[in-house]
Please model this.
Amino acid sequence: MAGVGKCMCIMAGLGLASGMGASYIVQRKANNMVLQQASAVAKDGVIPIGGKTPDGKLWDGSMTIEQLKKDLNKKSLVSSSIMGLLAAIGTAAIAGITLLFKAKL
Model:
C-alpha cells in the first residue's frame, strides 16, 4: 500500500510542477503582448484608464507601465498556482485509477 501512496505522491508532484510551469509560460507570453500594446498606448510612461462607477458617473485615471507589469505578474502567479493544483489533482486521480485497474480489483 505504501508503494501506491508513493506513486500517487510522485505523480501529483510531477503534475503540479508541469501544470504550473506550462501555465506560467503561456501567461508570460500573453503578458508580454499586453505590455507591448500598453507601451504603444502609453504617454510618458502612463497608461490612461477609466470607466464607469456603479452609479453611472465616468471617471478617469492612469496607471504606470511598471504597475501594470506588477499586477500582471501577480495574476500570473495566482493563475499558474491554481492550474498547477488542478493538474496535480487530475494527475493523481489518473494514477490512482491506473493503479486500481492494474491491480484488477
Observations:
- The radius of gyration is 22 Å.
- The CA atoms of residues 26 and 71 lie 16 Å apart.
- DSSP finds two helices and two strands in the chain.
